[in-house]
Amino acid sequence: MRGRSPDMLVLALMLAGCESVTLGGAGVVLGPGPALCRQASLPQVTPLFTEGPAETGPIVLRREDGVLVTEVAGRVRGRHEREDRSSFFTTRSFENRSYRLVVEDAVAAGRSEIKITYYPIVDVSMYGPGTNFRSWKMYGIEGDQNGGYTFHVNQGMRQVSPRQLEQTVTDNPRVGRPLVVGDILDFELGIYLAGADAMDPNPIVGGSAYFSDTFRYQVGLGGLTPENFDAAGMLGPSVEARLGGGTTVPFVALADGTPVAPKYAFSQLALNIQWPHPQGFLEGRRLFYTELDTGAHVEAGNPPLPLQGVLGPMFNARSCVACHAFNGRGVLPPVGEQVQSLVLKLTGEPDFGDQLQPQEAPVWLSRVESQSVTLSDGEVVMLQRPVFDAGRPLRASARLAPALIGLGLLEAVDEATLLAAADELDCDGDGISGRPGLSRGSPGEEPRLGRFGWKAEHPSVSAQVDAELAAHLGVGGTASAFGGEERSRLVTYLRLLGVVPQRVTAPEQVRRGAEVFAAVGCGACHLRELTTGGRHPFEELRAQTVHPYTDLLLHDMGAGLADDSGLPEASEWRTAPLWGLGFTAQVSGAVNLLHDGRAGSVLEAVLWHGGEAQRARDAVVALPREDRLALLAFLDSL
Q: Which of 59, 83, 405, 85 is nearest to 217 (CA)?
């Protein structure tokens, strides 16, 4: 019961009108009513967001004349979608290289016509090549990286002004007929910005010839889809596989299923991003990739940030990306080497404060302690617990850098939705007693619900950014040189990182794995589905049905996963989201799961589960080999 007296809890629940409760696995019957029991244990929290309009208008709206209007936005790309360079970020991507598109669809109003208007952030080239509009991909020819860019239509856009160009689509040449509801209009732009020709006025610095994203527009329905309908390519994601709802990015792969630029899977803009957020995203990314002492951008060819020297005297890293490479999970070094993307949170260590910094004492991975688990079919799995050495004994909690996709969506889930899954006193007797993390504000204020951090200690992306800047980079508060504008850009970047889709390459095995996942009880904490609320300031994140596989609650995971803090909650951890799990090795270069990176595979992570998850863990151990492989295939598909 996390250090509280059961007798006092029973008394408190009786006074609160609770009628039954389970304590320590035994039922204490006060009468019927687990719902009342659960309600009595829930805290009062302050909502993170209040009712009000979003920063941008609706993504899709229907005009009075019946025309559907879809707002689209993006960034320039270095090459076509199925080439690696399309996923990269071009040199000076944060300067003058974002755009807005408006799609006006009259098909829903009974006319075979769609007008697309392109609004670049700077002038297009006046004397160089014109902006191209390529549409209606020729399906079935995408066998390699150089064979997937043939479109039925390739023509110049009509220039209304240097920052407004238009294109009208009236038929579907792929099948030779007028447009109908349900067609997928896939298109890309060939972009030439001012400077493509030496005579251009107002030339930009750096490159000027680019491509747009490849967009797939849903004719007569409005909005973009991440689904690739080319029969020669990797199909999907279907609606059910869009883990991030409207933010889900396409899975770009070759015909044999090989992902294109998988290291950048966690780096893309949300598919439904709205203007002007792409520019804030790109400027936030620049800060994320900047060393805060010298201002140097870690990607070659980019100019230094004028804002320099804001790195504190005590720091774990010089840039955000040093620990969160490609927005992925941190990795452990080989035994005997110093850790880079892991920190030690301290308890009762006045000499060092709340977190150990390398300037105080470097932390080394000194050794691993091994144990084995034998599965039902005789397979033996070795588990290894890392042991860190800072030169002296410390009451510490090791924390590895987590993956960063989907943060804005998790921030957008209403408090009531998350609290509905909480059951701190296990009132229903199912052995699962998740409790909300609470973030305390000023004295007398009700707390906010914790969502981020291994211990669910931070209530918002903004709070997480502030905490990480201070703890890991030594950056002062908002009154410092790294002030509110810079932090706002970082927050925009982190909120709007697109979520990868579920990838289903062996449908029957993955389907069976999903059934096993539910049957053994994994879904009791790793909730498959959440729906975001309607109060987040970003329209992109409102009313989204998403599949993060988390409840964002704290659960007792048993002594085997307890940290060395010595605190009563040492074995409590927030349920980690599972979206993007299958890309871990490709993004991070290695697999190090759980809070201290001890698990070198998904199966190892499962086998470390204890406490509330002991029953589910034991069920996995007992699975027939075929079901276990199906479970792992399902998890790898996420």
A: 59
The identity of residue 391, as a single letter, is: G
| Residue 592 forms part of a structural domain | no
- Report the distance separating Cα 363 and Cα 67, nearest Å: 61
Last residue of a domain, one of 198, 222, 246: 222
291 and 210 in a common domain: no
Distance CA 494, CA 297 (A): 18
Beta bridge partners of 21: 28
Do 387 and 484 reside in the same domain of the chain?
yes
In this prediction, residue 507 carries a pLDDT of 85
Residue 33 has pLDDT above 80, yes or no: no
My answer on whether 204 and 306 are in the same domain is no
- For residue 34, give both structure tokens: 């687990």
Its domain, for residue 188, covers: 60-222
Residues 293 and 217 in one domain: no
Residues 335, 387: Cα–Cα separation, whole Å: 9
The answer to whether residue 278 sits within a structural domain is no
The counts of H helices and E strands in the chain are: 13, 25
Q: Are residues 301 and 189 in the same domain?
A: no
- Residues whose CB is less than 8 angstroms from the CB of residue 171 and which lie 6 or more positions away in sequence, other chains included: 112, 177, 178, 179
**How far is it, in rounded angstroms, from Cα 421 to Cα 424?**
10
Does one domain contain both 310 and 178?
A: no
* Contact between residue 224 and residue 245 where contact means Cβ atoms under 8 Å apart: no
CB 266 within 8 A of CB 497: yes
pLDDT at 518 over 70: yes
Residue (of 382, 340, 399, 363) closest to 573 by Cα position: 399
Cα separation, 359 vs 356, whole angstroms? 8
Dig out the tokens for 442 from the structure: 């000023």
Cα–Cα distance, 556 to 5 (Å, whole number): 17
Domain annotation covers residue 552: no
Q: Choose among 179, 196, 89: nearest CA to 135.
A: 179
Q: Scan for tokens 């490479």, then name that residue.
A: 325
Query: Greatest CA separation found in the chain?
Result: 85
pLDDT of residue 140: 66
The set of residues, in sequence order, having a beta carbon less than 8 Å from that of 535 and lying 6+ positions away, is 47, 49, 50, 51, 52, 412, 414, 542
Residue 215, Cβ neighbours under 10 Å: how many?
Answer: 22
In this structure, are residues 493 and 280 in contact, taking their beta carbons and an 8 Å threshold? Answer: yes
Which residues on neighbouring strands pair with residue 396, listed in sequence order? 346
Alpha-carbon gap, residue 187 to 70, rounded angstroms: 15
- Is residue 397 within 8 Å of 453, Cβ to Cβ? no
Global pTM exceeds 0.90: yes
The residues, any chain, with a CB within 8 Å of residue 280's CB and separated by 6 or more, are: 488, 489, 492, 493
Last residue of a domain, one of 453, 469, 495: 495
Neighbour count for residue 272 (Cβ, 10 Å): 26
Q: Are residues 308 and 218 in the same domain?
A: no
Identify whether 16 is part of a domain: no
Q: How far apart are CA 99 and CA 72, in angstroms?
A: 9
DSSP state of 377: T
> Are 454 and 307 in the same domain?
yes
How many other CB atoms sit within 10 Å of the CB of residue 430? 14
Spatial contact of 491 and 609, defined as CB atoms under 8 Å apart: no
Name the domain count of the chain: 2
pLDDT at 250 over 50: yes
322 with 333: CB under 8 angstroms?
A: no
pLDDT band at 5 (very low <50, low <70, confident <90, very high): very low
Spell out the residues 6+ positions from residue 397 whose beta carbon is closer than 8 angstroms to its own. 344, 345, 346, 347, 454, 455, 563, 564, 565, 570, 595
